[in-house]
Amino acid sequence: MDEDLELNGGIRNSSIISRMVVEGYDTSPPREDVEEALKKHFASRGIKLMHVSVPVDYKCRNRRRALIYVNGECEAEALKLDGSYVGGLVSKKKSNVGGRILTITAYPFDDNSLEHLFAPTSDIDEYRQHTLKVRGFDTSLSLNDIKKMLLRVFPGSDCFPLWDGSALLYLRGQYAMDEALKLSGGSVEGFKFAVTEVLPETVMETGISLATARSFGFRG
């Protein structure tokens, strides 16, 4: 078993991912600038965000709530930043955007109480494609077996198994992302499943080159 996954019945807190809702930031910059600013804000406090999503309702340009995802062992520290001040954002269109006080609330995956607030954005966000690096599979499995298993668990997805026992999983839409991140730290078809990284969307938009694949362990 992968040592990174082993703790308390085979699962480390670092493999379990927690979801939270953030409000209070300046909503005027583009989505990408807001997401990057939130990552930097938490990183400045020693907290690495696994993923940030700022759903946008394109009918009214509303992007007032963001979803952030952290490793389970960082959840308590992330919640301590509730009420913290995030400095001015710098966007391509505005050189300086005033700072704000953040509101951070735990939003477990099995809690759908805020679903109606994000629902208007779901149609647009279904076109956003994401890449996750996942691992935890039996290394004796063939690459083809790993791919078949992932496609069974995540219908409509695509994947690229790597020689180191991990795989790149390609998903579309926020719902599919939440399902994958929710499963991290749990068992998938008898194997300990872990999302270890969410790659930048630019990687997805340009495709996966052989050089990029090799950087993740592919030796084909």
Which residues sit in consecutive blocks of at least 5 with pLDDT less than 50? 1-12, 90-98, 202-220
- CATH architectural grouping of the largest domain: 2-Layer Sandwich
The tally of domains stands at 2
**CATH class category name of the largest domain:** Alpha Beta
CATH topology tier name of the largest domain: Alpha-Beta Plaits
Distance between the termini: 25 Å
Element order, helices and strands?
A: EHEEHEEEHHEHEEHEEHH
The helix-and-strand class reads: alpha+beta
Q: What is the molecular shape? A: globular
For the secondary structure, the number of strands is 11
Number of helices: 8
Q: Describe the strand arrangement of the main beta sheet, using strand numbers.
A: 8-9-7-11-10
Give a summary of the structure in a few sentences.
The protein has helices spanning 31-43, 75-79, 115-118, 122-125, 143-153, 174-183, 201-206, 210-215, and strands spanning 17-23, 49-53, 65-71, 85-86, 100-101, 103-106, 129-135, 158-161, 167-172, 186-188, 191-199.
Polypeptide structure, described:
- With 220 residues, the chain is of the alpha+beta class.
- It has two domains: 109 residues, Alpha-Beta Plaits, CATH 3.30.70; 90 residues, RRM (RNA recognition motif) domain (Alpha-Beta Plaits, 2-Layer Sandwich).
- The chain contains eight helices and eleven strands.
- Strands 8-9-7-11-10 form a five-stranded antiparallel β-sheet. A four-stranded antiparallel β-sheet has the order 2-3-1-6, with helices on both faces. Strands 4-5 form a two-stranded antiparallel sheet.
- It is globular and about 50 Å long.
- The two termini are 25 Å apart.
- The N terminus and C terminus are likely disordered.
